[in-house]
């Protein structure tokens, strides 16, 4: 059975969904934005001011509203996926674009014409934001970290870690075992493993093999192909590890028997990722251990944990340098975000290793909240490398002032671009009208510092944001708002318990 919702009923549901999600999330915008408590049926409740986390937890018992919420969430997910921040700003802009657009449609403008004008205006706004952006200094990146993390300890740790590893893909976040927040550097190449028996780790967290000989193959199915290297290694009493994407079960059993029953230092590792990733990881390891014609190489140190292994080398040989250059060339040609992430992660591990930040707190709730702020901070610094602007609220307002109003699309954007500034100020409980009057009176040479409750010169301010966060926020807000403005029907597929098939 299909249920069709249209006309005014649908418009009312869209209004309700947008107000529900945008109002809840927008309260967190700015340096003194509010927190939100999230109750979960599968975990303990927690507190956060992370926009995308709040948005993803908003649901309704009404299936019509839920359908619309899923569409709106797409805007936050897209912004978060690309720049890792700006999800709250996206929803603030989206709400204003939608409701201002709805007013114009009621006045008689064509929905399709309005959508076209909105995207024409969007191109002009993106160019105006780019004109406001400038290349960050080292100090600027530190200020971005402070603004995004809203905590000096978080900003300092992120700054130090970036100095060590240079790339956000090489930074991992984990909960600290205590109240302290700290980080450690792992200079090796970490990769995932699977099917390693748990009993190997009964009395230890990890297995450490120094000066380890490694036999690297794509697949190991025949005991004969490893027999010689096995005997040679065991006779010399050297550590040995077999690494492959697939290892036959009988070989695994033999290796375990040698290890446990005969107390011999021989292990096996399987790589449990998709076929393309397996091949790339094997190629990286091949360069790291400098394998010979017999597929044998050496690692200065091999650390094996239950789900990961890490290879450490003496120095970067020519094969490693060639592999690094190859990955950099692939990155220049790659436009797929998932593949870019994979390439950047591999590059970071080959060049600098990885950093693990252990996020501390008194309670698990506090740790989780701080972990989310670390995530925002790391993504913000990475994105800021492409260019920064002076305060997102002020920049959007300045862009609004510089945008010539030639079309209805320009008109609704001029309304929407005010909203981030207004929301930041109202969340801080200050009079935005007085603030913007003084800023405009200074010809945008001053900015208001909420934390210090005072104005400061633009040239001296530390209130800066990544330019591409603003660009992605306005792009994704426009995309979803324009789609909702041109939607007049919603079809709900309802299936009875006796009819499970789905029509396509």
Tell me what you see in this structure.
By secondary structure, this protein is of the alpha/beta class. 52% of the residues lie in helices and 17% in strands. It is built from 18 helices and 19 strands. The chain has helices at 7-26, 51-56, 63-83, 87-106, 111-132, 138-149, 152-165, 224-235, 249-260, 275-289, 318-333, 337-351, 364-384, 392-402, 408-416, 419-427, 432-441, 467-485, and strands at residues 2-6, 36-38, 46-48, 171-175, 182-186, 189-192, 207-216, 219-220, 240-244, 246-247, 266-270, 296-304, 308-312, 354-359, 388-390, 446-449, 454-457, 464-466, 489-493. Strands 6-13-12-7-9-11 form a six-stranded mixed sheet, sandwiched between helices. A hairpin with a 4-residue loop joins strand 16 and strand 17. Helix 3 packs across helix 4 and helix 4 packs across helix 15. The radius of gyration is 27 Å and the shape is elongated. The two termini are 14 Å apart.
């Amino acid at each position: 059975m299909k249920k069709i919702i249209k006309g005014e009923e649908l418009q009312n549901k869209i209004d309700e969904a947008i107000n529900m999600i945008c109002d809840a999330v927008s309260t967190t915008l700015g340096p003194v934005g509010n927190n939100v408590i999230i109750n979960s049926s599968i975990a303990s409740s927690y507190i956060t001011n992370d926009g995308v986390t709040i948005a993803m937890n908003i649901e309704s018992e009404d299936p019509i509203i839920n359908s619309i919420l899923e569409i709106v969430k797409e805007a936050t997910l897209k912004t978060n996926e690309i720049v890792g921040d700006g999800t709250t700003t996206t929803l603030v802009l989206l709400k204003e674009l939608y409701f201002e657009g709805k007013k114009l449609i009621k006045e008689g403008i064509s929905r399709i014409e309005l959508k076209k004008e909105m995207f024409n205006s969007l191109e002009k706004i993106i160019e105006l934001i780019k004109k406001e952006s400038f290349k960050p200094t080292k100090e600027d990146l530190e200020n971005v970290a402070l603004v995004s993390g809203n905590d000096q300890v978080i900003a300092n740790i992120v700054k130090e870690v970036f100095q060590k590893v240079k790339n956000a893909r090489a930074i991992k976040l984990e909960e600290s075992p205590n109240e302290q927040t700290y980080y450690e550097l792992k200079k090796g190449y970490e990769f995932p493993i699977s099917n390693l028996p748990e009993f190997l780790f009964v009395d230890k967290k990890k297995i450490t093999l120094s000066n380890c000989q490694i036999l690297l193959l794509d697949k190991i199915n025949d005991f004969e192909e490893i027999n010689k290297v096995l005997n040679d290694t065991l006779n010399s009493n050297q550590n040995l590890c077999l690494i492959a994407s697939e290892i036959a079960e009988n070989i695994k059993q033999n290796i375990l028997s040698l290890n446990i029953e005969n107390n011999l230092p021989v292990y096996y590792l399987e790589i449990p990722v998709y076929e393309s990733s397996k091949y790339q990881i094997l190629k990286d390891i091949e360069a790291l251990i400098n394998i010979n014609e017999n597929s044998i190489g050496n690692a200065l140190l091999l650390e094996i944990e239950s789900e990961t292994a890490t290879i450490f080398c003496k120095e970067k040989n020519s094969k490693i340098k060639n592999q690094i250059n190859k990955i950099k060339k692939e990155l220049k040609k790659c436009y797929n975000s998932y593949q870019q992430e994979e390439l950047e992660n591999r590059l970071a591990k080959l060049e600098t290793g990885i950093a693990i930040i252990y996020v501390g707190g008194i309670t698990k709730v506090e740790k989780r909240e701080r972990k989310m702020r670390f995530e925002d901070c790391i993504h913000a610094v990475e994105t800021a490398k492409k260019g920064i602007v002076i305060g997102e609220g002020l920049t959007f307002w300045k862009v609004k002032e510089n945008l010539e109003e030639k079309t209805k699309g320009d008109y609704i954007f001029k309304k929407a671009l005010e909203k981030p500034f207004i929301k930041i100020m109202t969340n801080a409980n200050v009079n935005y009208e007085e603030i913007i009057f003084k800023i405009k009176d200074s010809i945008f040479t001053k900015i208001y510092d909420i934390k210090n409750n005072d104005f400061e010169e633009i040239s001296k301010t530390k209130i800066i944001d990544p330019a591409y966060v603003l660009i992605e926020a306005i792009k994704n807000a426009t995309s979803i708002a324009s789609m909702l403005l041109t939607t007049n029907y919603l079809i709900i597929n309802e299936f009875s318990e006796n009819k499970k098939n789905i029509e396509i």
